[in-house]
Design brief:
By secondary structure, this protein is mainly β. The protein has helices spanning 40-44, 47-63, 193-207; strands at 71-79, 82-84, 97-106, 111-119, 138-148, 151-161, 218-226, 229-230, 253-263, 268-276, 287-296, 299-307. Helix content is 11%, strand content 32%.
Amino acid sequence: MRTRFSAWPLLLLVPVVTTISHAQQSPAPKPAPATRAGGSAGASCDRRCLLQFLTDYTEALADNNPSHLAVAPKLKVTNNGEPTTLGKGDVWGPARRLPYRHAFVDPVTGAAIFYGVVTNAVQTTRPDAPASPGPQRWWYWTLRLKIENRKIAEVEEIAYERGPNAFGADASTMTLGDRIFDTVLPQSERSTREQLFAAANMYFDAVSHRVDYHKVPWHPECQRIELGVFTVNTTRSPGSCGGEFQTPSVKWLVENRRFYIADVERGVVIASGNFTAPPDFPKNNPSVVMEAFKVQDGLIRHIFAFFRGNGQPKSGWPDVAR
């Protein structure tokens, strides 16, 4: 979303961990009381339980039938920031496939997040298979669930269908998530939950130009990818994870910050923010971005972002754990 790319909706890099002094970074966001260890979310659904909820949900999407999902009485559902009902988001419909899948969960907060690519293209040679239900369509899809008492209490879906001249890689070419996020770190290379959340918060501050990007602890291998496209270290965007901020227009005011996943064993933190255009760059594309960070040795090593590439003015959800 940078103005260097006309359709580049937002995103940027993330900071992190053990080597960061708290004097250098913004105050670490505090987990909301209900999401602390021992709260209703953590006590009722462990890692395997949360993963099973994601499996149940993605199978319901593939079957176009959410009726078997275990949902809370006061379920809240949004599609691209707008209130809706279960099974009515952009990606729902007949004959769905999800060739790209990547799951993240946190038993402490009860959050389960899924990055996926969804298509209605059947692409089969079986003579007994049904015909494709219409023109081939491809979406980048972000799903967030909140599980309480072993029921789905919140559903947030963000869907972006790539059209002509759209930002992002060809969604049909994405098939396997980056396993760097699944790698378990040795004890000596890990950060605490508080440090992981603080890293994400500091990254948002860097995007907003509220802190000097030099203070963010970048790993020498740092890369940032959004919707399958490298946004740093490229011929079109030659800056590094930190160096890209030397371009003045790489700036968004990140509001409505929400912190969902801190996986200490894997060094993964996932947070969401509403990237709004600043007064000095009013044409910067605003959007709600879900950012996944890999933090190792206290340094931000990898950043991966999903969002609605053609813009999303609001998330439909309040701030979380700040």
